[in-house]
Sequence to fold (587 residues):
Amino acid sequence: MKHDLITLTIDHKTVEVPEGTTILAAAKSVGISIPTLCYLNLADFGCVNTPSSCRMCLVEVEGRRNLAPACVTTVTDKMVISTNSVRALKTRKTMLELLLSDHPKECLTCQKSGNCELQNLADRFSIRDIKLKGEQSTYRLDISKSLIRDMDKCIMCRRCETMCNEVQTVGVLSAINRGFESVIATAMEINLNDSVCTYCGQCAAVCPTGALVENDSTWDVVTALGDPEKTVIVQTAPSVRAALGEEFGLEPGTLVTGKMVAALRNLGFDKVFDTDFGADLTIMEEASEFLDRLTRHLAGDTSVKLPILTSCCPAWVNFFEHNFSDLLDVPSTSKSPMQMFSAVVKNVYAQELGVDRKNLVVVSVMPCLAKKYEASRDEFSIGNDYDTDIVLSTRELAKLIKQYNIEFSLLEDEEFDNPLGESTGAGVIFGRTGGVIEAALRTAADWYTKEYLKDIDYTQVRGFEGVRSADVKIGDLDLKIGIAHGLGDARKLLEEVRAGKSVYHAIEIMACKGGCIGGGGQPYHHGNTAILKKRTEALKIEDESKKIRKSHENPFIIKLYKEYFGEPLSHRSHELLHTRYFKKHKI
Fold:
């Protein structure tokens, strides 16, 4: 829709913007930065958080008695605005002091220190003393495997609420109580562990303070590395290599695979492996499962469940178990790459090393906070010995590297260890939306046609739209593929499946926008989708640079099946590489 242009003046600059533009957006268009706290532009995710509650963006408008919040006030023709008047600056400082007066003075020990937007504004306004003193609101700490909620640090910006309810449609967080007792909480103030939280971590990704952070496990890793009785192995997810460099000042989208491997080796890990190997293993099972269901469906078997749903994302699995437990037989039963990898290490590779699995520690570096929860699921353990022992986010790995005084940017590139460090381009693209299903198609196409196909770039499944539909031809098969990233968009496809209206043969779902590259444990992108797209491009570059780009051609995968599993979907592979799902109650 075409908008008429409006001319106005901001800080003596003439600005021309479309009708309906906010003062904040108009100022940004000419390089004027107005401070904000509650505002967050998630337009590419389908919403913008504008409660205008923090009042940090107040500006002076000529002819208006009161100051105007720039984030929600739309411009008018010939409007004259001052963003830096003494009145506006003093009012912002007062609002900031009010926020700080009810905020813990724990910056030295807060996990968000250095990445806290409230802390940054306090420095920007040169606040060196909290003049306003009085009673502070206090709430109990809520600690889960993935997340820590410390509502004493909440500033009621409502970003987490918007993300949880509007983008992800999970509905865990909302504002309760009134006045001084107001807080963002779960229903009946139950723990996250008892709620329908998926642990996607997107709430923590948008929180401006330390109110929502990951449950940090860095010192657990340090302890394990210092234990002479333990053999400590690390695996790294594909999307970590496309984002880790940002924590060391490198441009978004800079591939740091070799430096990451070198850093992990310098940390003291006994073996540095690649979760991409687990991704290739996942494709062997998932593609086989897809072809098995599809073949039986085409033969007239009415008991076959289609579409098959990918099962790599633990936040999506948790969402599914809570909201669509009537469809538990629809997703693939293949474990995620992380859990497949860990199961192979603890049950197969440990024997080759001659190490008791109880003395083998598997550390996983993941872009996703839900992976911490996934690792703790009972079905992924033998007694109290879990397949995956410790999960670090990308941010936590960066902290660990800094703690060890490793100059990341100066490291020479190194290679992963074999055999579990060998992977294909198909494994790499698991890190972005559309990548899992594209990897599956590369293998399924070869197996179905019994040919070696050279055209393996299924570009029709790529993109950034929340819900995508792709037509893919494999031999004489015309396949309909669905892709969704973000749980709100996933819900749309799942409702179609529930209603029996789905037209798809297979659906890929990832909980986070952009896929794993936008995971809740990645470096903060603050809603800037340009960063996510650069990370996606980095994975594309690594995929295209690989000598082998199909999972079933990975020589160490071939060897593993020949010597241990026999073939995909065998009894042994079902025991070690597959899982089941559980009905969970909604509260």
